[in-house]
Amino acid sequence: MTDAYIGLDEEAAIDDPMDTLIGLLDLGSLDGARTDEDIFLGPSQRQPRHRVFGGQVLAQSMMAGMRTVEPDRVAHSMHGYFLRPGDANKPITFGVQRLRDGRSFSARRVHAYQDGVPILSMIASFQHEDDGLDHQSTMPASIPDPESLPSTADLLARYDHPVARHMSSERPFDVRHIDPALYVSAPTEKVATNAVWMKTLGPLPDDPNLHRAALAYASDYTLLEPILRKHGLAWMTPGMSVASLDHAMWWHRPVRVDDWLLYVQESPSAQGARGLATGKIFDRSGVHVATVAQEGMLRVPEELQSRFAAQV
């Protein structure tokens, strides 16, 4: 584990985003420290707004839980609540409570702590691989190849802004939108759907747990964008406030995040300053590898609320 990613200032540079990702997921065990929990320590990734990226703490919490189960039991689901914003200038302590180890399934509760209080509470389940019924959703047809689409770096490299620099050069994933991205410009078509191709910028070790945790990291990218598209909003909308409230994920089949994955998203509802989004993740051959759901808080300035209300 390294603390090279803790407390970096705005001007500091991270040479290799892949080293960042691997360092974030390499949790320390605090020399076997334990109460009624197994205790681990993880670094934080620098962020221009100094708040921990939700996908980071999800992935680290999954790695902490994975460290406490038998190697032949793989993560198949997790349900987490973001309780407080995390400080990206501080490390995170992870406490894992061993709720149950049954014949086929293990359950773990993971709390991520900063300053002695939880910033995330999660329950995850792990299963010994088994045979059974098998069916899956079908990947959408007529999707352009990722190589034909611009990357986030292509779209944002020309903007001299800390957030743009972070998204274009410091993220460990290459994310490519099927429809025009919402980083700066509002969408021209108001639909409650979104889709992106994504993969890590470089190869990862052949560790299935690492790939599942890294997918949890990436699953927090763009997931609320179907809500923004439906209401004609860009991420740069003045005065808008967006925050993830919870996150659920189900891993269905083996996955590699260093190969292209298609993330298909939609929003069934938005109301009461909250919006729900769901996503299906497919590998390039069409295998449905995971499903995700998240509710987010979305507040727009009062003067804009009438413009975006009741768009059914």
Keywords:
single chain; 312 residues; Thiol Ester Dehydrase, Chain A; 2 domains; 12-stranded antiparallel sheet; 19% helix; Acyl-CoA thioesterase 2; hydrolase; fatty acyl-CoA hydrolase activity
Main sheet summary: 12 strands, antiparallel
The CATH topology of the largest domain comes to Thiol Ester Dehydrase, Chain A
The low-confidence runs, each spanning 5 or more residues with pLDDT under 50, are 1-14
Output the CATH class name of the largest domain. Alpha Beta
The tally of structural domains comes to 2
| The CATH architecture of the largest domain | Roll
Instruction: Report the helical percentage.
Output: 10-25%
Secondary-structure element order, as H and E?
HEHEEEEHHEEHHEEEEEH
How far is the N terminus from the C terminus? 48 Å
Number of helices: 7
Describe the structure.
- This protein has seven helices and twelve strands.
- It is of the alpha+beta class and 312 residues long.
- Strands 1, 2, 3, 4, 5, 6, 7, 8, 9, 10, 11 and 12 form a twelve-stranded antiparallel beta sheet that branches.
- The N and C termini lie far apart (48 Å).
Summarize this entry quickly.
It catalyses: a fatty acyl-CoA + H2O = a fatty acid + CoA + H(+). Helices cover about 20% and strands about 35% of the residues.
